[in-house]
Amino acid sequence: MKICSVVGTRPNFVKEYLLNLELKRRGIREVLVHTGQHHDYEMSQAFFDCFALPAPDYHLRIDNSDALTFSARAMLELATVFEAEKPDCVSSYGDVNSTMAAAIAASKLRIPFAHIEGGIRAADRYNPEEINRRVSDVLADVIFCCTTTDVRNLEREGYDADRIEYSGDLMKDALLMTLSKYQIKPVRGDYHVLTLHRQENVTDERRLRAIIEGLVNAGRRIIFPVHPRTLRCMENFGVMELLRNSQIELCKPLGYVDFVRLAAGADKILTDSGGVRREAYLLHKPCIVLIELSWFPEISQAGWKVLTGPEPDQIAKLIRNFEPLGPHRELFGDGAAHQKIVDVLVKRYGG
Ligand code: UDP
Fold first, then answer.
1. How far is the CA of 110 from the centre of ligand 1 (A)?
2. Which residues pair with 90 in a beta bridge?
3. How far apart are CA 146 and CA 235, in angstroms?
4. Which of 15, 49, 123, 196 has the fewest CB atoms within 10 Å, measured from its CB?
5. Ligand 1 binding pocket mutation candidate from 7, 9, 10 (most atoms within 8 A of CB)
6. pLDDT confidence of 351, banded at 50, 70, 90?
7. 121 and 248, same structural domain?
8. Whether residue 16 is found in the same domain as residue 163
9. pTM of the model
């Protein structure tokens, strides 16, 4: 059996970590294709080094300065790879442009596409990730879901049951493995951790200013590993000024283990990331989500996450006062998503 795995961004590399090991353990040939969507050392190669991932069989290095041009070129170049490799299936993770390009290229060539981390839904159909997710789900031969809510989302939309698999979350697998391997124990420390990179938040000057204002006004120590796109926008909009004399400490994006260590020692997590909000929950951290995108509503329902728009007073108040309201229950599977996914792939495409 031969599988083509398409990766392109930081969260993809985290999800590839244990799946790659599991495929290797079972002697399954994986052709790893990196689109180059994320290309800075801290956003890409650092993860290959940290997880000892093999160098990609194909590194397409596609210019990512414009999202539509990137997606179109990724589709063309991925199709060329798939035609040459003739895999039994193509898989990709989550909701990035590389995922959508892989789904379209594979399906056009009649190669079954496996969408890992599908079924997540947000109300805003024009959110860039939502578009990628919906297209990838529609085209997928099989959709692996992180939660039973995501399964129900697909059922509600009329997806056939035999296309849906509840696997749990590869991000949980990677986190549990890392906590155990590096003996990291979550404690509530004296600082908060912030990540911010959603297009809606960082490319809109008014929103970005309002969020930063709220963060500064909270008057708490906040450690902020800054995504390259966010840094560019902050510099272009002159928002850096607001941070002078604040308690917000900027640093480069961290390697995965360093980030997990930092998050595990935080008091609260402030984020607009899809992955980091899950990690916050799994690390038992109150999480303030700085965007009105309700991915993984079960965390809010459990009382561990609260969403806010770009209102400075509200942001500052939540940072100071928000505490979890409910018991912590098991979410995102049992840490064995990588095994379940490979089981299903072998059964369906293993010949
Ligand atoms: N992450 C990291 N270093 C950082 C910030 C985040 O390793 O400085 C990891 C984090 O632990 C999570 C993943 O990156 O596993 C989330 O990626 P991101 O927030 O970029 O994407 P999203 O999940 O929003 O798609």
1. 32
2. 4, 113
3. 36
4. 123
5. 10
6. confident
7. no
8. yes
9. 0.96
Q: What's the pLDDT tens digit per position in 145-197?
A: 999 999 999 999 999 999 999 999 999 999 999 999 999 999 999 999 999 99
Q: For residue 174, give the ligand 1 atom closest to its CA.
A: 15
Provide the 8-state DSSP code for 41.
G
Domain-embedded: residue 85: yes
Atom of ligand 1 nearest to the CA of 273: 24
Which conformational region is residue 119 in: left (phi greater than 0), alpha (psi within -120 to 50 degrees), or beta?
Answer: left
**In the predicted structure, residue 212 carries a pLDDT above the cut 80:** yes
Instruction: Give the C-alpha separation, 23 to 75, whole Å.
Output: 25
What is the mean pLDDT of the segment spanning 226-241?
95
Helices marked H in the chain — which ranges?
10-25, 45-50, 67-85, 97-108, 128-139, 148-156, 170-181, 199-202, 205-217, 228-236, 240-243, 256-264, 274-282, 297-301, 312-321, 337-349
Is residue 43 within 6 Å of ligand 1 at its C-beta?
no
Confidence of residue 293 (pLDDT cuts 50, 70, 90): confident
pLDDT of 11 > 80? The answer is: yes
Q: Which two tokens stand for residue 181?
A: 């391997």
Residue 115 CA to ligand 1 centre (angstroms): 19
Domain count, the chain: 2
Residue 325 clears pLDDT 80, i.e. is over it: no
pLDDT tens digit sequence for 111-139: 999 999 999 999 888 999 999 999 999 99
CB-CB neighbours of 221 under 10 Å: 14
Say if residue 341 is in the same domain as residue 309. no
Residue 14 in contact with ligand 1 by CB distance below 6 A:
yes
Q: Is 17 in the pocket of ligand 1 (CB under 6 A)?
A: no
Output the domain CATH number for residue 161: 3.40.50.2000
Find the mean pLDDT for residues 244-265: 97
Q: Is the CB of 195 under 6 A from ligand 1?
A: yes
The reported pLDDT for the residue numbered 98 is 98
Q: Which residue has a Cα nearest atom 6 of ligand 1?
A: 259
